[in-house]
């Protein structure tokens, strides 16, 4: 695999440890998003501004910040500095926390890997907490949420392979996932919303587009076979609340046409990098095809 192709997609996990005890809002998606733009801006200020202002389908995602081990005390209800109700969590010395970023376009991925990560600061601040950076990886062998690939790498096994394509796609939704549809917010990963969202991202940033009729195929020919989902809310600015689904959901093809199942599998593999639904740049929509 060429170096150029390898740098089209990247999932980076950064390990952090608190430098002081801190209490902050449990949802740090906005702060992690701001950190990403700040890091990109140090390498290319113009690109950072364009990422913030222009692209409707963003070529990156940002997670919340999370502990690598369960907390001794769960998030609790409280009030932020402005007196608004919020869910608060605490970071203590010695804990390990992580954040995850993905990049979806070749230009941004190359900048990220060649100029941003080598110049990563030793300390970062997210809202009220300052962390020391203790590790960074883009390797799936080091962290199951890290990795690097090209669009061709994801597509070839299904569109060019000789084996029959999968007809079932079990998904894990690890952060609240919701969609905009018909002027409404839908906090459930229905087949056409999930695969339609993945299709929009793929066709926005891949050098080779997939057939837009995949959305209709998902609506008419993919069903949910089983699920264990629950609703989870995240609080954003101005005290707005966004709700989405977390848990597991398995999708099954009712029409096992080879091309449509292959194209659906490509999008299922892509979900690891692209996320799904809205607010994927602020901690929502992190998901993956668990069969992979």
Word description of this protein:
It is built from 8 helices and 16 strands. The protein has 292 residues and is α+β, with helices and mostly antiparallel strands. It folds into 2 domains: 3-137, 2-Layer Sandwich (Alpha-Beta Plaits), CATH 3.30.70.1890; 152-289, Alpha-Beta Plaits. Helix 2 (29-43) crosses helix 4 (106-116) and helix 6 packs across helix 8. It is globular.
From the structure above, extract its key features:
single chain, 292 residues, alpha+beta, Alpha-Beta Plaits, 2 domains, 7-stranded antiparallel beta sheet, 4-stranded antiparallel beta sheet, 8 helices, 16 strands, 30% helix, 34% strand, globular
Q: SSE string, helix = H, strand = E?
A: HEEHHEEEEEHEEEHEEEHHEEHE
Give the number of DSSP strands.
16
Portion of residues in beta strands equals 25-35%
Please tell me the CATH architecture of the largest domain by its name. 2-Layer Sandwich
N- and C-termini, Cα separation: 20 Å
How is the biggest beta sheet arranged?
7 strands, antiparallel
Task: Please bin the fraction of helical residues.
Answer: 25-40%
Class from helix and strand fractions: alpha+beta
Q: Determine the CATH topology of the largest domain.
A: Alpha-Beta Plaits
User: Class of the largest domain in CATH?
Assistant: Alpha Beta
Low-confidence stretches: 1-5
Tell me the Rg in angstroms.
19 Å
User: How would the global form be characterised?
Assistant: globular
Q: How many structural domains in the coordinates? A: 2
Output mean pLDDT: 91
- How many helices? The count is 8
């Amino acid at each position: 695999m060429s170096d150029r192709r390898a740098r089209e997609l990247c999932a980076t996990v950064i390990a952090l440890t608190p430098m002081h005890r801190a209490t902050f809002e449990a949802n740090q998606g906005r702060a992690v998003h701001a950190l990403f733009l700040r890091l990109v801006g140090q390498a290319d200020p113009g690109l950072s501004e364009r990422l913030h202002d222009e692209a409707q389908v963003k070529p990156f995602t940002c997670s919340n910040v999370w502990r690598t081990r369960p907390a001794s005390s769960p998030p609790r209800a409280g009030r932020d500095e402005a007196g608004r109700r919020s869910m608060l969590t605490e970071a203590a010395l010695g804990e390990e926390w992580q954040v995850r970023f993905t990049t979806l376009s070749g230009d941004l991925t190359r900048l990220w890997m060649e100029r941003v990560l080598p110049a990563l600061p030793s300390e970062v601040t997210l809202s009220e907490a300052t962390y020391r950076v203790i590790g960074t990886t883009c390797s799936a062998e080091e962290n199951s949420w890290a990795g690097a690939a090209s669009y061709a790498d994801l597509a070839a096994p299904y569109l060019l392979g000789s084996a029959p394509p999968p007809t079932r796609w079990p998904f894990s939704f690890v952060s609240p996932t919701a969609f905009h549809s018909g002027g409404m917010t839908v906090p459930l990963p229905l087949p056409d919303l999930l695969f339609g969202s993945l299709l929009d991202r793929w066709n926005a940033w891949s050098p080779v587009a997939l057939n837009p009729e995949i959305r209709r195929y998902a609506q008419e020919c993919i069903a949910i076979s089983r699920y264990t989902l629950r609703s989870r809310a995240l609080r954003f600015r101005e005290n707005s609340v966004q709700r989405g689904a977390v848990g597991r959901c398995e999708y099954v093809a009712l029409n096992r046409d080879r091309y449509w199942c292959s194209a659906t599998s490509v999008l299922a593999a892509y979900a690891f990098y692209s996320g799904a639904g809205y607010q994927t740049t602020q901690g929502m929509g992190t998901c993956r095809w668990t069969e992979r």
